Amino acid sequence: MTDPILFSVHEGLARITLNRPTRLNAFDEATARAWERITAEAVARDDVGAILLDAEGPSFCAGGDVLGMAAGGFSADGITELAGVINRGILSLIESDKPVVAAAQGTTAGGGLGILLASDYAVVGEDSRIGSLYANMGLTPDLSVTAQLHRAVGQRRALQLVLQDRLLSAAEAVEWGLVAEAVAPDQVRARGEEIARFWLAGASAAYGQAKRLVRAAPEQRTLDQLGDEARTIGAALATPEAQARVAAFAAASARKAAR
Predict the structure, then answer these.
(1) d(C-alpha 145, C-alpha 143), whole Å
(2) What is residue 121's DSSP assignment?
(3) pLDDT digit string, tens, across residues 118-174
(4) Is residue 172 within 8 Å of residue 126, measured between CB atoms?
(5) CATH code of 126's domain
(6) Does the residue 206 lie in any domain?
(7) Alpha carbon distance 146, 159 (integer Å)
(8) Domains in the chain, number
(9) 133 and 250 share a domain?
């Protein structure tokens, strides 16, 4: 049996690959359980400095397995329970101090939008389409879509997306701030890996903490957030890596000023 999600770690990069291409990488029970387990492992490993989330096949993720639902493969209680399983994986990524880049080719729809939003930086193909489409099937958004979408694009645009059967073009998704970049379709995964390698080549711990602070901000009072920022930068400055980088930056600035 083919693994529904592939996982590997190489030189600090954890790659999580959705692997049900014939079902548009939609989540069934096996995929949901694998997602929860793999995301938890990725964020817990000390040898992981960045995470790349990508997918096999022509599309990134269609959310839940609608064909399975139509065939009676899910009960109402079963759907609720599996959504909770997938949500725990999403929270693992969001709440971690590992920066996550998504390389999302083709179509992203339904709960796949929540999977995309679990990344901190998203790259799509110039031919990609992104939307909600829940209401077309009489369903409501899940997998963090209502929790995250309005934070990414604002409440009015979030409502436009969930109250219509609209699929955003790649250019519109970039304009809305839903994704960071649109590249040639055959370059999506390569560009995603390039971004992850950029983090790993730099002060990866600092990028991870910056991500955590931004992600935590909506849940904290301003005073608490400021305290978190102060503690975090103090802890960062105490590391040998930061001390070396600060010294190098100061030396370079001094040389520039002396010219």
Answers:
(1) 6
(2) E
(3) 999 999 999 999 999 888 778 889 899 999 999 999 999 999 999 999 999 999 999
(4) no
(5) 3.90.226.10
(6) no
(7) 9
(8) 2
(9) no
In this structure, the strands spanning 13-18 and 5-10 are: antiparallel
Residues 142 and 184 in one domain: yes
Q: Would you state the structure tokens that stand for residue 176, as one six-digit string? A: 């809305």
Q: Does pTM top 0.85 for this prediction?
A: yes
State whether 85 and 164 are in the same domain.
Answer: yes
139 and 241 assigned to the same domain:
no
User: Over the stretch 52-86, which tens digit does the pLDDT of each residue have?
Assistant: 999 999 999 998 887 766 666 667 787 888 889 99
Please give the structure tokens belonging to residue 97: 């101090």
* Integer Rg of the chain from CA: 19
Q: What is the pLDDT of residues 174-232, one digit of tens each?
A: 999 999 999 999 999 999 999 999 999 988 899 999 999 999 988 888 788 788 888 88
Pairing state between β 181-183 and 5-10: unpaired
Percentage of the residues of the chain whose pLDDT score is greater than 70: 97
Residue 126 lies in a domain: yes
Residues 92 and 142 in one domain: yes
- Report CA-CA distances (Å) from 206 to 94, 202, 238: 16, 9, 12
The answer to whether residue 239 sits within a structural domain is yes
How many of the other CB atoms lie within 10 Å of CB of 155? 10
The residue range of the domain holding 137 is: 5-201
Instruction: Looking at the structure, tell me whether residues 93 and 193 fall in a common domain.
Output: yes
Predicted confidence at residue 235, as pLDDT, reads 87
Give the strand order in the sheet containing 50-55: 5-10, 13-18, 50-55, 100-104, 121-125, 181-183
Q: Provide the mean pLDDT of the chain.
A: 92
Tokens of 159: 């409502």
